[in-house]
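ok so for the tutorial part 2 we go from a plain amino acid sequence to predicted structure tokens. step 1 is just haveing the sequence, like this:
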Amino acid sequence: MSKSLFEKGVTFHRSGDTEMAVSYYRQAINAHDQSDAASYNLALIYAQTGRGEEAKSLLHSMIDNDCHDSGVFSMLGKLLYYEKDFDNALPNFTKAFELQSNDIETSIFLADTLKNLEQNHKALNVYENVLKLQPKNVIALNGKGNCLRKNFQFEEALSCYQMALSIEKNNIDSMAFLMSVYLDMGDLENAERYAQKTLKIAPDYEQAVKNYKYLLLNKPNVSSKELFQKRVELSSIYENIAPENSIIEDRDNPNRKKRIGFLSSDFRVHVVAFNILPLVENMDRDKFKLYFFSDVRTEDDVTNKFKELADNWLSISSLTNESVAQEIADNNIDIMIYLAGSFDRNRPQIAAYRPAPVQISYHDCATSGLSNMDYFITDNFLNPNNTTELFSEKLIRLPVYYQFPRPNNRSNSLSTPALKNGCVTFGSFNKPEKINKNVVAAWSSILRKVPEAKIILKYFNHYSSNRIKDRLVTLFSEFQIPAERLVFESRTDRKKDHLSLYNNIDIALDTFPFNGATTTFEALSMGVLVITFWGQHFVDRVSGSILTHAGYGDFVGKNAEDMVDIAVNLSGDIIKLNNLRKSISSRLPSSPLCDGEVYAKNFELALLVSCPPIV
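step 2 — the prediction. this is what the tokens look like for a chain of 615 residues:
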């Protein structure tokens, strides 16, 4: 008996002759010979051979013809997922799941899609359903851990990753996730251990590289030489990836407006966005055209503000590093600015392709370590002329580094809480990973010298974790500070409610070596002075820079001991504290930290004068 057209297609498909398989599947479809199966197999070949648009078109046609095969919806969902089109992938995975809820692969794709769309609780439910069917599914365990971590359930997340690693001992995702959750909990030792394990197995694991760079900024007692060498070493995987012939095209008109590119995953409700919005809003559009390369996956009102300000907007979430570099080159960008390279999903490594003649690292906290990153923006307080910090980039020093939206609260009408409490309350709203043993030693020295005082600690909902609280309780006890003097606030709340907690604090204490930035500004905006000291690197001079530009440089110590003395002396003068509280928040809006127009002019001057192409 001769084979049907569809069967012939299957035979060639199995033998690897996709060209003949495609021919017979098409004939089968036209002859209505098992046309649904032929269409599915044809779409599969298209998907596997890089013809995604043809595959999607065929699958859409099947769905329009009332197909109810879960595999069709699942394949279409996967094609959209790999394009990072999560919004359109979701309904397809949802339908596939409804049709066949015990399909493990589809379930995991559905959960991952929900997680990428920040529908965390729904994603968690799907991962848990998978684990009921397959308790040792490592992908689901990692996915569940990531959802729990986002829910601030750090201990439970830790258990998921550890279980995954016990099943598959060299799973690099599990190792990298363990590094991240230990970092969240402030356990830098274990975080570094898993960073090293991950990178030993997979030295090009980009997120692990990024996380290790960030970890180094939190690690106490790292020398300038060590910080530089380690960051350069971590960036070495990106060297020599630029094409032999530069992808930079000749600029089409040297007299045209300068094309400035900004690349970030933070064009959304995020501290980096709030730092650069005043700049972007005030740039001279007669001189500059602004191009935004956005890796934002879930857009919001802040994203829309940036879109309104953009001359050109490109979403790069679905693009490879090399493809983004080509887009930058194709748009003839003159100056490419890579934002906050050590953080989130930002991709400074794209600079390694040399897509623009001038490339700048901005709002990072240390050298990128990339030979093709030309400049690093700083100021004279963050990196004075005698700085010991080392950079692979040349430094551009702005008159003022940080820029924040002008605060509009009315905290200057409030009195310092010590007046009614009868004693001073300290506070810090920085991340737990910034609170190391050296920080606790300094804070404890202050608390011993101000015996009635307590300290309030908060960072989102992190202190709902007993493990995080226990670590700090243990550390403080080593310096004779009992647990009852520590007040842990654990809640996620609206910005207004978060800021109102400063009404319970008289003096904010900074962390080191990783200072607060947004937290320092927020404290000042609420009239609360932050006590800090000058470190040796950008990262531990941030608060000193902010305080100096706000007009309160006298409260920046020379070292940790000086910081202790300043805090203790100030806590003994409640009248002075009260007067400071009433003046700080009223003076702050008129400080250089909130003058977007002047800031933009200085920034533009730096771009035009200080940035000749590196040759």
